[in-house]
From TrEMBL:
The gene is pstC. GO terms for molecular function: phosphate transmembrane transporter activity. Belongs to the binding-protein-dependent transport system permease family. CysTW subfamily. This is Phosphate transport system permease protein. It is a multi-pass membrane protein.
């Protein structure tokens, strides 16, 4: 056929039309490139801004120093060890409270919950996930702080208070991810265990739960990331005292609280501001480690 005949049949026009798949592929590539560029930019900015302060203070002195007095003009001290310890204590307390409750709730919703009850519990879980952190902080300030003060002593703003509130905050993450992991286990696992004479409880906890272990552990690590990066709720209820605690009713200051409390009055370009950015860099390293653990667990499960 001649070129004119082909164009009359529409062959030439169709060959010049860019398929929708190609356009969408370009859109997806651009979106992914923007995302990667944003992450790299944030990483470079944080570490570049933190390096001068770490160089002047000293990495060892910064990480393991137990004094934080940035406003002492004659001898400013920048040691974040109390903030690291405070973050670890609150994170550990939140996991001790939130993980058992979240895991057992997920098992109940996946294998025991009647449908009418499930229709109520599932939306409640989603609502908990959507509540802003400052609302949790206000709830802790008005309800949990007085309860801890009257029951355990102290002023109520403490490790225990922050652990309780953050333990509640991570419940939606642990419940949703763990429930999906348990439901993803093939029914043949449960049926095979029952056929071999196992009770329902043994079939669930000895067969299905181990099979869903990677998803359950992932939910715990995601909850860990939520706790360690939380700011507003912690600032309102942890006491914000930059010191090593003696007991769980003592107030502490976390790394996130330290940044948000002092960044507003730190002089631009000062060592104080650099130390706060360096604190953010240390926190960022913790988050990177948590992300790497999630990726490792998923790779191992595959």
């Amino acid at each position: 056929m001649t070129e004119e005949v082909l164009e009359e049949k529409g062959v030439g026009r169709q060959s010049r039309i860019v398929p929708k798949e190609v356009i969408m592929k370009v859109v997806f590539i651009v979106a992914a490139a923007v995302f990667i560029l944003a992450v790299i930019t944030i990483c470079v900015f944080i570490f570049v801004q933190a390096f001068p302060a770490l160089k002047e203070i000293g990495l060892f002195k910064f990480l393991f120093g137990d004094e934080w007095y940035p406003t002492d003009e004659s001898n400013p001290r920048f040691g974040i060890a109390p903030m690291i310890v405070g973050s670890v204590y609150i994170t550990g307390g939140a996991l001790i409270i939130g993980v058992p409750i979240g895991f057992l709730t997920a098992v109940f919703m996946a294998r025991y919950c009647p449908k009418p009850v499930y229709k109520v519990m599932k939306p409640i879980t989603n609502i908990l996930a959507g509540i802003p952190s400052i609302v949790y902080g206000y709830f802790g300030l008005m309800v949990i702080v007085p309860f801890v003060r009257e029951t355990f002593g102290g002023d109520g703003m403490s490790i225990l208070t922050a652990s309780i509130v953050l333990g509640i905050m991570i419940l939606p993450t642990i419940i949703s991810v763990s429930e999906n992991a348990i439901r993803a286990v093939p029914k043949s696992y449960y049926e095979g265990a029952i056929a071999l004479g196992a009770t329902k409880e043994r079939a669930i906890f000895r067969t299905e739960v181990p099979a869903a272990k990677s998803g359950i552990v992932t939910s715990i690590i995601l909850g860990l990331g939520r706790v360690i990066g939380e700011t507003m709720a912690v600032v309102m209820i942890c006491g914000n005292q930059a010191r090593f605690p003696d007991e769980i009713t003592d107030g502490v200051r976390t790394m996130t609280a330290n940044i948000v409390l002092e960044m507003s009055y730190a002089d631009t370009g000062s060592l104080h501001e650099g130390a706060l950015i360096a604190t953010a860099a240390v926190l960022f390293v913790f988050i990177l480690i948590i992300t790497a653990l999630v990726a490792l667990i998923r790779k191992k499960s595959k």
